[in-house]
């Protein structure tokens, strides 16, 4: 299944608001994950990086890091996910941010495990 460019992103205020209003959340020191089942065959995500984090250069760096972390993460299909960056995310290096996001995704049950879906001895 090929994904149309931009289809994996939450882009409208209404989409974000639905996740904020009805979704569950999991929090760490530098990041908050909010998620809501979407009934689709793909997982969409959005990023919320407010001005409290710093100037545009800092905010854009945090967004680039979060996008790359999500791109590399195997996510379960059928979810709308919003990552909300907290102030400590501006000073966090990539590895710490990656660990926080990965831990929260696993805690939320949104990440496909390393061995999930593998059935030994079955061709």
What does this structure look like?
The structure is a single chain. With 123 residues, the chain is α+β, with helices and mostly antiparallel strands. It has a single domain, classed as Ribosomal Protein S5, domain 2 (2-Layer Sandwich). Helix 2 crosses helix 3. The protein is globular, with a radius of gyration of 15 Å.
Keywords:
123 residues; alpha+beta; Ribosomal Protein S5, domain 2; four-stranded mixed sheet; 3 helices; 34% helix; disordered C terminus
Can I get a quick summary?
With 123 residues, the protein is an alpha+beta fold.
What's the overall geometry? globular
- Indicate the low-confidence ranges by residue numbers: 117-123
The overall strand count is: 4
Radius of gyration: 15 Å
H/E element sequence: HEEEHEH
Q: Beta-sheet strand percentage? A: 15-25%
Computed structural class: alpha+beta
Q: Architecture, CATH level 2? A: 2-Layer Sandwich
The CATH class is Alpha Beta
Q: Strand sequence of the main sheet, in spatial order? A: 1-2-4-3
CATH topology: Ribosomal Protein S5, domain 2
Average predicted local confidence, pLDDT: 88
Helical residues, percent: 25-40%
Distance between the termini: 21 Å
Number of helices: 3
Number of structural units classed as domains: 1
The biggest beta sheet is recorded as:
4 strands, mixed
């Amino acid at each position: 299944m090929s994904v149309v460019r931009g289809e994996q992103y939450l882009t409208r205020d209404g989409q974000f608001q639905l996740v904020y209003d009805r979704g569950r959340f999991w929090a760490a020191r530098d990041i908050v994950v909010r998620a809501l089942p979407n009934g689709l065959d793909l997982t969409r995500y959005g990023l919320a990086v407010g001005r409290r984090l710093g100037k545009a250069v800092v905010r854009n760096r945090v967004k680039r890091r979060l996008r790359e972390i999500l791109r590399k993460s195997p996510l379960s299909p059928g979810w709308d996910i919003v990552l909300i960056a907290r102030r400590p995310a501006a000073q966090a290096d990539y590895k710490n941010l990656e660990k926080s996001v990965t831990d929260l995704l696993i805690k939320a049950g949104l990440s496909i495990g390393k061995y999930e879906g593998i059935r030994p001895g079955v061709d």
